[in-house]
Structure prediction request, 294 residues.
Amino acid sequence: MRSSRVAALSIVSNTSLVVLKIIIGALTGSVAIVSEAIHSGLDLVASVIAYISVRTSHQPPDRSHPFGHGKIENVSGTIETLLIFIAGAWIIYESASKLLSPTTLRLPYLGIAVMLFGALVNFLVGRKIGRVGEETKSVAMKSNALHLMTDVYTSLGVAASLMLVSVTGMHVLDPLIAIGIALFIMKEALDLGKESFLPLVDVSLTDKEHRQIISILKRYAHEYIEFHDLRTRRSGPEEHIDLHLVVAADKTVAEAHSLCDRVEADIRSSFPQAQILIHIEPESERGQAELPLP
Prediction:
């Protein structure tokens, strides 16, 4: 499975970067580099969670999970959000201590080189993971890519701060940059939390996606009377879509079934992993028509 292989790649790259940043952080005495090591450690945890959740979410439905395992990706994303907040708080605490008792940096240019190297690796891996996440609509993969791309920006920020410290001798910049990194990744956690948690409480698809579904249904308006009770929700990489379709009373079962097959195929052309359920009603049971979204 392509997504599993890409998720495994991020585990390997993050493990290497965590070890490297911890060593360089200890050698230079930079709390910003140590903060980056923690950030990369979170990326490693996120990569492991993404790898496990991607493999699990793609398992077919079974007796215990008749609707599939897609929501495991949303659970993993929510866990990653909590981890980011915990790490952010820890970084701020350590940086505040450094502000009160500043220390002299050692070998700043070694730290700069490692930060630039880490930014390059995470950029290449994060871009690849993000592309696969978009193709497969995987919440876990997209959140993992977001972790890595954030690491790119923070690594560049640390490299810049080390350069400023080495040029100006203002060692207070090191913990200040670390606090900035912490606030940045905590903001990232809020964005990730919205995407991962809301599907757990069965929030509907976006207005744009809703309008897209309605647009597809309108293509077949000449073959049915109306539709109503359109409901949508997301589960990991899958969309769940169901609705009631009212057809003429004289339409045969075979004709109604054929119509449903064509509608479902058209919806899946835009939502490849959608699970679609259409309930057919004869005209005599017609309900209230679905109103298009503004």
Notes: The mean pLDDT is 80. The longest strand covers residues 226-235. The CA atoms of residues 25 and 33 lie 5 Å apart.
